[in-house]
Amino acid sequence: MRLSLKAIYAIVFNLILLSSCSNDDDMKTTDPENATPSMEVPTEPMTNIDGFTTSDTKTELPETTFGNETDCSQSEDDAFNAAFIVLVNKHRESINLNPLMEGTVANYLAFKHSKHMICQNDFNHSNFNETNNILSREVNSRGSAENIIQGYNTPESMLEGWLNSPPHKMSIENPSYTHTGFSAVKANGRYWGTQLFYR
Hints:
The protein has 199 residues and is α+β, with helices and mostly antiparallel strands.
């Protein structure tokens, strides 16, 4: 579920109080931190499609050849997602860059890729060409990038992990990107995350 700005700031404030940051700089870790405390998310009208939740009922979600596993049920962590987007945009604003706007199609594609990685136990960018083509077709994107991560259990540590990696940091701080999609999914005590960037 994509939340109002006021709800997002409330969630971020609570997450900052309740969670701790990691100094890990690896994008894949086998020693995850304690799980993020569960947060109560304000109720809004939403659609749930195979674990992906959104309050955007007008956008038609595209078909994909990935993330369709029926024997592997996964769901997004809406509070984690909302808090992460706020942190990314605060970071961009701190270096005088415009915030990234979320796109429903990109959020969905990020979820499908995170789910696919979990269900296949395969940490890779194997679906990026298809994702890039879908973004180009569905939202007229003119260039995109993808960051993936595994094992960071708070929004703060996940962002820090990416910022400590020059190629991932470059995507986050690229001034030409205007939109993003993000999805964190928890499985076996650790989060798998995908963030898409496009213009």
